[in-house]
């Protein structure tokens, strides 16, 4: 139950930290980084004026970011359990502080009933309302709350997802077509990865499967990562689609370290799953790969890309046959340590982000890109000073960056990054959400 203990302690501690951070809001900041041909403009987003853009203060962290096919950037971030979530949206051409604050999706009557472990998705096809539906999922321990918007984030409706379980942990959400979405999470009772599906735009979710068979040793001994769906390549199952769930676990039933990456693969839209190992990851996984989180992405041509961190470096594995065979890279990161990788596989390459430190003290958002001629790296913006603790309940400090962040590309191939930073200043004890938009450099292509 290591992962559940870590996740629960993080969200509980974060809820208290939010109250302190609000009392001392971080000053707005702008930063521009140029290296290896890429440039970014960055800023901290405001929550003081709903419906307005501009730099300002917030106390949210661990964000999720996606860009719709219409070029709408959607960025969600969490306030911690009981605090709800925050959401910003705007055109992909907006400046670093140009996203508009859209309020709290996972809240009812202004009360944030959720607020842990946010994740979000855009539907890849337009709904009956003529928009790409937005899903924002947030954890509240007793259940998962899924907020849905059909008007580009101006208003949200809520669906509490219970699924008959007393406690849920670290959910992920992904969308398919105009009205279908999958929701996965750890259930506390078994530590297995449960799969729920909605075919009515998020109004109702039904439990359809578990990613790992209950008889498999990995069912109770894993750390899950994100969920991804292939929007462009047909599955061999009539009416089905390809879905992929990342997780790490011991390579054998006698192991205790999460030394191998695995991929749950479904060809029928989430109803049945096969767990496929990524054998080449054991070469660098001896010290563990749960550094947080494993992350899978699908290129428009169906090629799978999978990134992991062993707490020292970030590695990339790729598969062209739905996870049957894999090849692994050497270290992609260039810093002394690299954790919390996230990436997007595109039509012309891969964009990857991670938190890295060159000296063990100051941490930065790093942006790595490969468009066919090897990896180039940009140090984007400093976000934290001091140690990073990934131990959950054992942490006594160093939790400002929480556990993950995100990157996506727009239809023109430029990167958009959502990250967490110290608040009110570098080295501060609070957390705040920042946004970085690529302003120059090589576009990596459009996403799946």
From TrEMBL:
This is BNR repeat protein. It comes from Amycolatopsis echigonensis. The keyword Transit peptide does not apply. Residues 1-28 form the signal peptide. Keywords: Signal. It comes from the Bacteria. Gene3D superfamilies: 2.120.10.10.
């Amino acid at each position: 139950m290591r992962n559940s203990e870590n996740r629960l302690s993080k969200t509980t501690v974060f809820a208290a930290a939010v109250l302190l951070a609000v009392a001392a809001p971080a000053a707005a900041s702008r930063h521009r980084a140029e290296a290896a041909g890429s440039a970014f403009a960055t800023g901290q987003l405001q929550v003081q004026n709903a419906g307005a853009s501009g730099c300002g203060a917030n106390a949210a962290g661990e964000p999720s970011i996606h860009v719709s096919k219409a070029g709408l950037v959607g960025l969600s971030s969490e306030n911690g359990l009981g605090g709800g979530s925050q959401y910003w949206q705007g055109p992909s051409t907006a400046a670093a502080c140009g996203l508009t604050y859209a309020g709290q999706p996972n809240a009812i009557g202004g009360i944030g009933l959720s607020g842990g472990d946010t994740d979000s998705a855009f539907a890849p096809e337009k709904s009956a309302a003529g928009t790409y539906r937005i899903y924002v999922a947030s954890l509240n321990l007793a259940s998962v709350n899924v907020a849905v918007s059909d008007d580009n984030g101006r208003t949200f409706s809520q669906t509490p997802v219970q699924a008959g379980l007393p406690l849920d942990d670290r959910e992920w959400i992904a969308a398919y077509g105009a009205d279908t979405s999958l929701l996965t999470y750890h259930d506390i009772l078994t530590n297995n990865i449960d799969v729920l599906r909605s075919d009515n735009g998020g109004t109702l979710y039904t439990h359809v499967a578990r990613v790992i068979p209950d008889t498999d040793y990995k069912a109770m001994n894993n750390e899950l990562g994100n969920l991804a769906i292939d929007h462009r390549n047909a599955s061999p199952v009539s009416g089905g689609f390809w879905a992929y769930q990342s997780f790490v676990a011991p390579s054998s039933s006698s192991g205790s370290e999460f030394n191998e990456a695995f991929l749950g693969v479904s060809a029928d839209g989430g109803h049945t799953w096969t767990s496929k190992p990524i054998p080449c990851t054991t070469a660098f996984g001896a010290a563990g790969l749960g550094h947080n989180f494993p992350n899978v992405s699908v290129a428009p041509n169906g090629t799978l890309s999978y990134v992991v961190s062993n707490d020292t470096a970030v590695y990339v594995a790729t598969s062209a046959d739905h996870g049957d065979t894999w090849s692994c890279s050497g270290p992609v990161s260039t810093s002394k340590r690299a954790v919390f990788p996230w990436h997007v596989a595109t039509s012309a390459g891969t964009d990857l982000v991670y938190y890295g430190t060159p000296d063990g003290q100051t941490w930065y958002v790093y942006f790595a890109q490969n468009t066919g001629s090897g990896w180039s790296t940009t140090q984007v913006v400093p976000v934290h000073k001091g140690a990073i603790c990934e131990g959950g309940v054992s942490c006594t400090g160093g939790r400002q960056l929480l556990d993950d962040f995100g990157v996506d590309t727009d239809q023109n191939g430029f990167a958009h990054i959502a990250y967490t930073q110290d608040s009110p200043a570098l080295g501060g004890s609070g957390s705040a959400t920042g946004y970085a938009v690529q302003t120059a450099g090589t576009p990596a292509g459009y996403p799946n």
